[in-house]
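subagent[fold] <- orchestrator: predict structure for attached chain, return tokens only, no commentary.
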Amino acid sequence: MTETARPGTKPARPHFSSGPCAKPPGWDAAHLATGSLGRSHRSKLGKSRLVHALDLTREILGVPATHRIGIVPGSDTGAVEMALWSLLGARKATMVAWESFGEGWVTDVVKQLKIDAEVVKAPYGELPDLAALDQSTDIVFTWNGTTSGVRVPNGDWIRDDREGLTIADATSACFAMDLPWDKLDVVTFSWQKVLGGEGAHGVLILGPRAVERLESYTPAWPMPKIFRMTKGGKLIEGIFKGETINTPSMLAVEDYIWALEWAKSLGGLKALIKRADANAAALDAWVQQTPWIDHLATDPISRSNTSVCLKFADAAVTGLDDEGKLALVKKIASLLEAQDAAYDIAGYRDAPPGLRIWCGATVETADVEALGPWLDWAWSQARA
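subagent[fold] -> orchestrator:
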């Protein structure tokens, strides 16, 4: 094959990791407010900063006043586990999985909590038939499959008269996609995804039906301290008013606040979605004209605008098994990192061999456009 010339222009910011994601443009540690550092998170100042973070989250995401928002430990994983351990078991569950993290929640519910559950799966790149799900059960699903590049396009399939709860892991969807809050009883995310914050903190959003479940149902298993959201049969409201269960990093909180204020300055959620859509469209334009690559997500309607996952076109890798394809992925990723042209673009370890390019709002479209020629260069180098 003909070797592709080395491009002359690099992405100004070659950060395409799917978590932790790129910092917002213009970010600098010197911009962060530091007055809360070295102070108790329970001090008047510390609590006010936590409440400010929650208020900005509500404003930008458009979370209704009926829903409670809390900062919890353990990133998105901790937030999801809190929901699963605290809410499930009152009725049968339906676990929906079409990528790695959804599969992880299946393991937790079926093998660890041993809850009666129906498991509905689809292969990487596809969605199951959501309209066919039994809505008398509690339904657990990922809104956006971070490791597959497949997202739920809308919430039309969720009935208003559902009997069970809807529990959505939305960590790579919040701040990049519209979420139908009236149809979601639990939403979780971590700010290290779409807003490019620091790790270790999760956000748990509870609707009225989830609170009702918490106050009327006690799980049969012992509850770890960091998962406990009720006391004496009543919700611990302080968790959702800045009184965190354990000690948060105030530096991480200040970093999150800076990203939220950046998002607000752009115009809020609509502006964030517009940026992510533009990035995904720029990457798709390159895919459409590139014979060696294709989208892992087969249906454009359910294709993610944040964690865009790519696979090798079959004709381009004839004769290569998965081990050979993985070697090709590693070579491409290492070539680009060595050139400071792209960082962290290898697909997730459990996903089919391929590339994963983060296109969330903190990435600049010009950098996505500059990435395409470098991907072609790395492909020709690796194949040679």
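orchestrator: received. Logging for downstream: The helical segments are 44-61, 75-87, 100-112, 208-216, 250-266, 269-288, 322-338, 365-383. The two ends are 7 Å apart (CA to CA).
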